[in-house]
Amino acid sequence: MEMSNRQSPSKALFLILAIISIQHISTVQCIGVNYGTLGDNLPPPAQVAQFLKDKTIIDRVKIFDVNPDIIRAFANTGISLTVTVPNGEIPNLTEIRSARRWVNQYIKPFVPQTRINYIAVGNEILHWGPQNLIDNLVPAMKTLYKALHMNGIRDIKVSSPHSLGILLSANPPSRASFRPGWDVGVLKPMLDFLNATNGPFMVNPYPYFGFDPNEVDFDVFRPNKGIYDRFTRRTYTNKFDLLLDAVFVSMKRLGHGDVEIVAAETGWPSLGETFEPQCTVANAASYNGGLVRKFISGRGTPLMPHKKFETYIFGLFNENQKPGSLAERNWGLFRPDFTPVYDAGILKPGAGVPVPAVPVTPGPGKKWCVPRAGATDAALQNNINYVCSQGLDCRPIQQGGTCFNPNTVRSHAAYLMNLWFQTKGTTLQNCDFSGTGDIVTDRDPSYGACKY
Fold it and tell me: Whole-model pTM?
């Protein structure tokens, strides 16, 4: 009787091979892109979706909000979409009624026509967020997941992307760990939740932000001597692998090396200020092209061999309204007219997209003061408070003002820091703001009716 319930060895082997084959087919690509919209010259979402479907190998897209026009544009394209809960909405989503209303408004009308695979709750909350957002992050993720199920939606995972500021150290990877406090206070319960719901742990590994001019080849996937981890006896030939293995080791320390890792943001800008010499077309093409080639090859990391990580390149377009230095506006794979900034290996054969011209470094001109790329929202809010307390006109950043939108601390600070800079004199001292300001000369950061 016991034997009659068993499958024959050949039949069992056939089923195993079939399951492996299906799993392989379902994950053969997983090349994604972050689709930002801080530009006044970007094409309509419907054109973007059609372009990605017809001309590129990209099969998934991540957006930084729940823009209904974008979500609708990807309906019936076969492209998977990750949508993002704005940081400020996190506390409200800890209440099940609010979470259900959010799902009913922003998710339910669009599925299953649009294939939404993930909801990212906030973005880099531990790195940038105030304490109330950090405290509410995991409860909001749990409640939102429950709200999805209560609304009959069971195929969308809930996660939250992290900057690698969550790591206490990354090199060598074998000795990596999450920062004390965040490790057991936030990341352990988050990993418990992700393990229980089969969701991924999202991280934003950017070799660019740890740029060392002596290790540029290591950073951008060019041949180099590598970095040896004497504890695991593994050699790393690129920084992307090193960062992912550091995350993996840190997760294992919390008992969750089994949770899938998604590289939710990674990339390299193609143009920068004179003080950003690493921002070149050659480096951007080498990094993003190397990333795509690595993925297609099926090579994993030294500690996770043969694993393909779902990866989202940052970003899709150069966005001309992003505040900050010139580099901030030149992360894109494409210009707004769909011409590639460089060849990253994501265009389909015979796509017929024209070869782009190499961007030219701008000459000297007028100067503007904008927030430094790494400045925190808390520091920038202090800058806003200071400028407004000194009698300057802050009405443009108030609701209804010409510079109110986008309604972010960084955008408001950019306007007011430059207002101070232009009013008090365009000297380095008047754009210091305790080390949070940068002087740019490439172009006027004004947009629409918001004049700097």
Answer: 0.74
